[in-house]
Amino acid sequence: MNPDLERLHPYPFEKLGALFAGLPVADKPHIALSIGEPQHPSPDFVQQVLRDNTALLAKYPATAGLPELREAIAGWLTRRFKLSGVDADRQVLPVNGTREALFAFAQALLDRDQQPLVLMPNPFYQIYEGAAFLGGGEPVYLPCTAASGLQPDFDAVDEAVWKRTRLLFICSPGNPTGAVLSTAQLKALIQLADKFDFVIASDECYSEIYRDKAPPGLLQACAEMGRHDYRRCVVFHSLSKRSNLPGLRSGFVAGDADVLAGFLRYRTYHGCAMPVHHQLASIAAWNDEAHVAANRALYNEKFKAVLDILGEPLKVSAPDAGFYLWPKTPVDDETFARRLKAEENVTVLPGRYLSRTVDGRNPGKNRVRMALVAELDQCIEGARRIRALIERL
Questions:
Q1: Which of 105, 356, 358, 362 gets the most CB atoms within 10 Å of its CB?
Q2: Helix, coil or strand: residue 314
Q3: Is 378 helix (H, G, I), strand (E, B) or coil?
Q4: CATH number of the domain located at residue range(s) 3-41+291-392 in this protein
């Protein structure tokens, strides 16, 4: 077997299962706030497109996707991020959800003979780390702390590290922090990529779930710099969170045409083309914003209701974007999660499971991730149970 497989850490939910092993079951209905799986209804019009096109199951899909899908994506990017002249044929590539694309991207990009470094936020989406390992790279974890606004302090990265960097993963809005990189920060990273010749992979899957202001994107920063070739920059977007379609497995990668050409070649061999009826459903979803605004309003309603209950006892406020709360815990994060499950039958994810310990410090320790994905009444009930536990501690 590939020896790099041995470098993969257990996934956070595997660790959570071990933490809960042997716990008594509380006499209350379970409320899951641990996994970021959207629970709002999928749009009816998208479901109808799927039902109307099941005959296309008899067709092999093309890896590059339908021209109409690439055009729909290019149009959405143009409208959302104020771009111009997006080349739908060369700068857009549909993918089966961004998880698979993020993982595969590093393997297509990295030359393991260079002993490349792959920089990523810490805490982070664990796919970045696995992608680095299987691509023959070495992860470098950039702590996201309160002192740095829950984003990496890129100014603290040593020049020697930048010189060996071949790929930088960024996540804005952040998972689990909800923090957003500013346009100025994105432009500074683009300048670093030019100086040290690395690629920026920007995971923007939570970009449409925001409180007040739409977060900027990496391609938007490129456009403001006059870089319409988006050189060294690629973005990853998905319908999972935006449109409550995690089971559709539909997203895209867009940006540097030369990078995407190599990635398309890799994916053609990989055999991961999106089914044609999924592509047609995706066209409908990317072309509609009304359901996205309604979805965003539901999340904002939940944040308000939950923070009315938990904001003061946990000293936590709404993040700029995303659907997670990332509060500090009154006891260590594993103890908090274990007691919450045992006594209140509510699951949250210990922050240390989303982070790595570097120089003796784990930026996720004594925090938990709460995903406000359940229905409003469940989120409110979960918040009440969490508050009840806090009052007993």
A1: 105
A2: helix
A3: helix
A4: 3.90.1150.10
Q: Which of 3.30.70.870, 3.20.20.70, 3.40.640.10, 3.30.450.20 is the CATH number of 59-288?
A: 3.40.640.10
Is the CB of residue 215 less than 8 Å from the CB of residue 185? Answer: no
pLDDT surpasses 90 at 293: yes
> Where does the pLDDT of residue 222 fall: very low under 50, low under 70, confident under 90, or very high at 90 and above?
very high
Q: Is residue 340 scored above 90 in pLDDT?
A: yes
Write out the two tokens for 153. Answer: 């302090």
Amino acid at 62: A
pLDDT of 234-259, one tens digit each?
999 999 999 999 999 999 999 999 99
Mean pLDDT of the chain: 96
Query: Which DSSP state fits 61?
Result: P
Partners of residue 199 on adjacent β-strands: 167
| Cα–Cα dist 319/179, whole Å | 6
Distance between CA atoms of 137 and 146, rounded to whole angstroms? 28
Instruction: Considering the chain, tell me which residue range(s) the CATH 3.90.1150.10 domain(s) occupy.
Output: 3-41+291-392
Other Cβ atoms less than 10 A from the Cβ of 269: the count is 9
Report the C-alpha gap between 221 and 47 in whole angstroms: 34
| pLDDT above 70 as % of the chain | 100
CB-based burial of residue 119 (10 Å sphere; 0-12 exposed, 13-18 middle, 19+ buried)?
A: buried
Q: How far apart are CA 178 and CA 150, in angstroms?
A: 8
pTM: 0.96
Q: Can you tell me the distance from the alpha carbon of 372 to that of 36, in angstroms, rounded to the nearest whole number? A: 8
Sign of the dihedral defined by the CA atoms of residues 150, 168, 182, 215, in that order: negative
CA dihedral 279, 280, 286, 291 (to 10 degrees): -120
- Average the pLDDT over 46-59 and give the result: 95
C-beta of residue 154 within 8 angstroms of C-beta of residue 172:
no
| Six-digit token string for 103 | 């993982």
Which pLDDT band, with edges at 50, 70 and 90, does 5 fall under?
Answer: very high
Residue holding tokens 């009930």?
Answer: 381
